[in-house]
């Protein structure tokens, strides 16, 4: 499967995440414990990866699997980073409003490019750097509200701690993605074996988070496993399936493509979600959204198109007279 087909499918799945999550609500509230969603999604990814790994092991040419603990323990790191990132997200939202947080979240586009260069030693051309910055500008433009919707100075009214935490959140998100790509490409191990290691730690950490929630609430609602499926509907299960499938596609991109493709997929998914929300939820369309989409499309063309298609080079040199 070509990377652009996976990226397109990832865009569709990512764009539907917010919509499905909204549809899973009842009167604006969740009937289920939303902390169980990541746990079930990780369990789904682990189950699918384990099945395909088992199929590979039954084939005539067994897959390559590095089983030394010094290699396996490296897959613990992304889980720790994501756990810290989730807590930083909640802390950031105590200082800034959701709109400001979304706009600041676009910093991860640039930080991903920087870490992509520093950690993975992948060189980007000047045109590609301009495209990445343009993508951040486009996504930010699409999210900025007009002065008639909110005070124009609201973006800069939050305390300094909020902006510092927002920058930290963007850096952690980019670091987790780049480190995961490093793990996926550091050897020729089977993708499914790498996924099994990654998602095993994911299941353990999400289970630990549920147990922590039980202790924090004093077990008022009983242990987490007794209420695991309480309030679940078909839409809720679609959210779980969507998150799990998205994670599997992202791991494929990390193995066979790179983080920049993932960044473009998720950015385009965000724009597609905003467009669909206009028709599904009556969200007001803005000129900022229209301009943001145009900027992001130009950025996409700049980054992935060959230089000779962006610039018309002369076929022959002009004849000069002496």
UniProtKB/TrEMBL annotation:
Membrane topology according to the record: Multi-pass membrane protein
Origin superkingdom: Eukaryota
Oxidoreductase in keyword set: no
SUPFAM superfamilies: Multidrug resistance efflux transporter EmrE (SSF103481)
Alphabetic keyword roster: Golgi apparatus, Membrane, Signal, Transmembrane, Transmembrane helix
Signal peptide from the UniProt entry: 1-18
Subcellular location: Golgi apparatus membrane; Membrane
Transmembrane segments: 34-54, 74-95, 101-120, 127-144, 164-184, 196-212, 232-254, 261-281, 287-305
Main localization, broad class: Golgi
InterPro entries assigned to the protein according to its UniProt record, in alphabetical order: EmrE-like, Nuc_sug_transpt
GO cellular component, one term: Golgi membrane
One Pfam family recorded for the sequence: Nuc_sug_transp
NCBIfam families listed in its UniProt record: nst
Cited function: Sugar transporter involved in the transport of CMP-sialic acid from the cytoplasm into the Golgi. May transport important nucleotide sugars such as CMP-Kdo (2-keto-3-deoxy-D-manno-octulosonic acid) in physiological conditions.
Family as reported in the entry's similarity comment: Belongs to the nucleotide-sugar transporter family. CMP-Sialate:CMP antiporter (TC 2.A.7.12) subfamily.
Protein name: CMP-sialic acid transporter 1
Taxonomic source organism: Urochloa decumbens
């Amino acid at each position: 499967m070509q990377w652009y087909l996976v990226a397109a499918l990832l865009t569709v799945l990512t764009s539907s995440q917010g919509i499905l999550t909204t549809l899973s609500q009842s009167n604006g509230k969740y009937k289920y414990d939303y902390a169980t969603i990541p746990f079930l999604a990780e369990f789904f990814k682990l189950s699918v990866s384990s099945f395909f790994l088992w199929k590979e092991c039954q084939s005539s040419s067994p897959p390559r699997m590095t089983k030394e603990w010094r290699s396996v323990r490296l897959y613990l790191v992304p889980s720790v980073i994501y756990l810290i990132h989730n807590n930083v997200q909640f802390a950031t939202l105590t200082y800034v409003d959701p709109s400001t947080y979304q706009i600041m979240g676009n910093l991860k586009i640039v930080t991903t490019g920087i870490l992509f260069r520093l950690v993975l030693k992948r060189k980007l051309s000047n045109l590609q750097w301009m495209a990445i910055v343009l993508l951040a500008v486009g996504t930010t433009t699409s999210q900025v509200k007009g002065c008639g919707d909110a005070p124009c100075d609201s973006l800069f009214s939050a305390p300094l701690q909020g902006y510092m935490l927002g920058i930290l959140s963007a850096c952690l998100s980019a670091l987790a993605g780049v480190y995961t790509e490093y793990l996926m490409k550091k050897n020729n191990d089977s993708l499914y074996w790498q996924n099994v290691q990654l998602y095993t730690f994911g299941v353990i950490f999400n289970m630990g988070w549920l147990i922590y929630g039980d202790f924090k609430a004093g077990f008022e609602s009983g242990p987490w496993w007794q209420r695991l499926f309480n309030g679940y509907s078909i839409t809720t299960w679609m959210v779980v399936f969507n998150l799990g499938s998205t994670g599997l596609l992202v791991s494929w991109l990390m193995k066979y493509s790179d983080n920049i493709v993932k960044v473009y997929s998720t950015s385009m998914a965000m724009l597609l979600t905003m467009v669909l929300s206009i028709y599904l939820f009556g969200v007001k369309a803005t000129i900022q959204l229209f301009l943001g989409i145009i900027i992001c499309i130009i950025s996409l063309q700049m980054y992935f198109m060959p230089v000779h298609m962006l610039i018309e080079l002369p076929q022959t040199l002009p004849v000069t007279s002496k």
